[in-house]
Amino acid sequence: MRQAGRALPEYRALRERHSMLEMARTPELAVAVSLQPVRRLGVDAAILFSDISTPLPGMGVPFDLVEGVGPVIAHPLRNAADVAALRLLEPAADLPYVAEALRGLKAEVPPGVDVIGFAGAPFTLASYMVEGRGSRDFAHVKRMMLSDPDTWHQLMRRVAESTIAYLRAQAAAGADALQLFDSWVGALSPRDYAEFVQPYTQAVFQALKGTVPLIHFGTGTATLLPLMRRDGAEVISVDWRINLNEAWSVLGPNLAIQGNLDPGALLGPWAAVRDRADEVLRAAAGRPGHIFNLGHGVLPGTDPDNLARLVAHVHEKGATRP
Amino acid sequence: MRQAGRALPEYRALRERHSMLEMARTPELAVAVSLQPVRRLGVDAAILFSDISTPLPGMGVPFDLVEGVGPVIAHPLRNAADVAALRLLEPAADLPYVAEALRGLKAEVPPGVDVIGFAGAPFTLASYMVEGRGSRDFAHVKRMMLSDPDTWHQLMRRVAESTIAYLRAQAAAGADALQLFDSWVGALSPRDYAEFVQPYTQAVFQALKGTVPLIHFGTGTATLLPLMRRDGAEVISVDWRINLNEAWSVLGPNLAIQGNLDPGALLGPWAAVRDRADEVLRAAAGRPGHIFNLGHGVLPGTDPDNLARLVAHVHEKGATRP
Given an 8 Å threshold on Cβ–Cβ distance, is B142 in contact with A267? Predict the structure, then answer.
């Protein structure tokens, strides 16, 4: 469960003394934070504590993390010259602390617990660079796609190339699985996804094929699934907006599905959480390719007890362990 | 095209002298602004200049319009006492200027141009009241739904009742059609829509049935359409995330569809706009129940020439006029 840490008091205690970036860039801290949900909640995998914005400075795009807003880029990329100035990420030189944290995490996770590395997907990362911050409309992105498609494609090529290097470094450092976060891709029409995004998502999965299992995360993707199923990931993450059986019927029997409990459900009392978790398990119907998870990150204010009981409940009900 | 006004220089000229609320509450100004897109762009209908937050103060929920944020409610509704204190809207007493503006608009629109009234849908309005402002996660809303469902249902009942009174007043004032804006409903799972929202949307459409044509607007609703088709609106609005033929196959031949051009497409050069408009027209395939429109409001920074050429192009290509 992504961002499960921030619901935990032991995370908030560390967070009082260190900034998020400091924690992500200090291997001992990143390892400690990554282990917190494993120890407290008993989840089956540890996801590296980091952020999709971590590789931006190495690509020549510095940013500030603004409380309550997220990464804010002082000089968003808006034209061909901006994109031409992008550097190709060199993970060993630009963010050695990520591989180091992954190795540390691998050494410390309990037996049977997998370590998941991740990166932002080309669309979500490129959108950050172009919008400069989170967006509702993606106006700058869509303007660039239609007014200056060459620049958009050039940007996506470079971001994909950096993402491949970044994920390869994480696989080499021992990640047992890799997750590509396309948190914002649900803003696109199927046509725009196919034309402006899909070739680069496919390039990333193609390049990583055969290393470790690959997970494609997105939200609001109900109408993109027929395209995403061909992108090369072994696991597709879906959110609560689509029924799990419907997603499965679109994706076919050969792909695994991660999801799809609404993290908002965890704000309710335990009886409501259990009820909704059971609904997910019923829809998954014991399929071997189901990874029980939330459809998005844990929300601030979530009761850690609900998280712990949820993990225990899913284990007890016999969901497939990944 | 909703919010087409704000792309026009004549709107911005008025806006420099008056606040949005002042314009919405002054019938002559609301009429003038509502007519701007009709005169400049040649659209087939005028939508009343107003905001879904307009009825909030009459219901006992005052707010401020914050530039770049939208309505911000000082005291969001979080418990049974907050909800019990809600007033039932009395349109004639609370917002007489809306009916007055509608009558003025009816008198001034060119022959053949219809006037559309509107209100926020119960979910979107109730979410505003509970969250206090726009939200990404709807954490407070989902917490209330699951932790205190009686209060949520009571809130929805009261909001629906007020919305019915508000829309009835607009129909009586001469609106030729009524649109219910459920801009945020795409945040919900089908189950939560069915349980916590649908009964109230249905109540609104049921109460208005037989007055004027009813349009149900939402975004990100691909997986909610099988439910929404039974809610009682004659027209369902869909956004660019779903292909029009797919939406039609879910909604069936007896409902009309409004949509579904991405307003982001209008930020591109005219050739790209035309290309994407033609794609919508091809998918509509001349069906009599198609109302060509955008999937959401016009984005700030849209070139008014693109809007005018789009209207002319759609008329020329022979799309059905509503």
Answer: yes
Return the bridge partners of B259, or none.
B292
Nearest to A264 among B139, B240, B272 (CB): B139
pTM of the model: 0.95
What is d(CA B131, CA B141) in angstroms, rounded to the nearest whole number? 7
User: Of A187, A193, A217, A223, which Cα lies nearest the Cα of A205?
Assistant: A217
Q: How far apart are CA A25 and CA A126, in angstroms?
A: 22
A242, A262, A299 member nearest B223 (Cβ): A242
Q: How far is B118 from chain A (nearest CA, A)?
A: 23
* Beta carbons of A241 and B263 less than 8 Å apart: no
Determine, for residues B220 and A220 on separate chains, whether the beta-carbon distance falls below 8 Å: yes
Shortest distance, CA B132 to any CA of chain A (angstroms): 16
From A51, A82, A148, A303, active-site residue: A51
Report phi then psi at A138, rounded to 5: 55, 40
Out of 3.30.70.120, 3.20.20.210, 3.40.930.10, 3.40.50.150, select the CATH number for domain A4-320. 3.20.20.210
- Phi and psi at A157, nearest 5°, equal -60, -45
Cα dist from B312 to A11, B33, B158, whole Å: 58, 21, 43
Q: Could you state, in chain order, the average pLDDT of each consecutive group of 10 residues for chain B (322 residues)?
A: 84 94 96 96 95 96 87 96 98 98 98 97 98 95 98 98 98 98 97 98 98 98 98 98 96 96 98 97 92 95 96 83 45
- First vs last C-alpha separation in chain B: 13
b or e along A17-31 (b: 16 or more beta carbons within 10 Å of the residue's beta carbon)?
eeebbebbbbbebbb
Domain boundaries, chain B: 4-320
ipTM for the complex shown: 0.94
Q: Exposed, middle or buried, B207 (CB in 10 Å: 0-12/13-18/19+)? A: middle
Minimal Cα distance from B279: which residue of A? A191
